[in-house]
Amino acid sequence: MKLINLSVQGMRRVGILDGDHVVDVLAVHEAQPFLSTTDIAALGSTVSVIAQWDHLHALFDKAVSLSRSGVGRTPTQSAHLLAPMAPSTILCSGSNYLSHNQEKANADTSGKEPEFFVKTGDCVVGPDEAIVWDPVLTQKLDGEVELAVVIGKPGRHIAVKDALDHVFGYTIVNDVTARDRQVRRRPDGSYWYELGRGKLFDTSAPLGPCITTRDEIPDPQAIMVRAWVNGELRQISSTSQMIWSVAELIHFFSVNMTLRPGMVIITGTPSGTAWSSDEELGGKWAGTNGMVKAQGYLQPGDTVVCEIDGIGRLSNPITR
Fold first, then answer.
1. CA 287: distance to chain centroid?
2. Which end of the chain has fewer CB atoms < 10 Å from its terminal CB, N or C?
3. Contact assessment for residue 21 and residue 73, using Cβ atoms and an 8 Å cutoff
């Protein structure tokens, strides 16, 4: 199943993608009542839906079935999709693809352990919402397509063998980055990272278009990820190329903190970023598979499209 958020008369609603249509669960209920008062309260946010999914998933199946009579059902192109959730915490793993490590200046831990940084729900925007180009913050705005893992079951010190049992589903995050804030050069020519200002800022986490539940992606290490800028293929790889698997990252982050329903883990990006064409910041082009080398960083008027098999496409324009 693919969970979404949609805007209906300015109000956020939880819904479902069903083929080329959107199902508004509450609108289906209003036409053909089938939810209890408690169920309706749970529809207040995607996070509450995730926390109560064991009970709600059968009701969501029923909503899809009832909608096929024509109630609560809208063609996707006519719907206003929002980010499918507002996570409290986005736990981020950098340098998790060998191909990305080959194209950039590396920190001391690159490829040796996950590079741990954090984004928050304040960074999130949804499908077709703008990524803001802010020249006061950065002159080197870059994007990174990443598989995002949505936690569905709480846990601490989660064993790798049990980790996927804690997954609710998967979505796409564009890990938008201010490279000139992130990458700093020492006098000896080596580099170090400042991941706070380089990664966490307004509109730096486009997320969506949906959350695909875990049952539809049984192996998160066997799916393709791609990104385009203005129609040029910039990134393409398989999640099989991750250094640390989804299960290993869940274990890693759970050592630091209790993972809770609605938290998100993003899993790194493959080669093809604009950084790879920036020799000033240690970039080294390592593209393959028909990828087009970036001639510069993101600029107002550009459009970034991120795609992951089994989830969909996330498109966002760059605006001043």
1. 22
2. C
3. yes
CA–CA distance, 246 with 91 (Å, rounded to integer) = 12
Q: Are strands 2-8 and 81-82 parallel, antiparallel or unpaired?
A: antiparallel
Q: Which two tokens stand for residue 104?
A: 């950039």
Looking at the 3D structure of the chain, how many domains does it have? 2
**Pairing label, strands 167-174, 205-213:** antiparallel
Unique residue bearing structure tokens 């996330």: 314
Model pTM score: 0.95
Q: Which residue in this structure is represented by tokens 């539809």?
A: 216
128 in Cβ contact with 306 (< 8 Å): no
Q: What is the pLDDT of residue 192?
A: 80
Measure the CA–CA gap between 224 and 271, rounded to whole angstroms. 13
Backbone angles phi, psi at 66, to 5 degrees: -65, -35
Check: CB of residue 32 under 8 Å from CB of residue 46: no
Reported as a pLDDT band with limits 50, 70 and 90, residue 94 is confident
| Secondary structure in 3-state letters for 91-139 | EEEECCEHHHHHCCCCCCCCCCCCEEEEEEHHHEECCCCCEECCCCCCC
Alpha-carbon distance 314 to 292, whole Å? 19
Looking at the predicted structure, is the pLDDT value of residue 102 above 90?
no
Compute the mean pLDDT over every residue in the chain, rounded to the nearest whole number.
94
* Beta-strand relationship, 205-213 and 124-125: parallel
Q: CA-to-CA distance for 91 and 120, rounded, in angstroms?
A: 9
**Which CATH number belongs to the domain containing residue 280 in this structure?**
3.90.850.10
> What is the domain extent for residue 107?
85-319
Longest CA span, the chain: 70
| End residue of a domain, out of 36, 52, 81 | 81
Which phi-psi region, left, alpha or beta, contains residue 128 (left: φ > 0; alpha: ψ -120 to 50)?
left
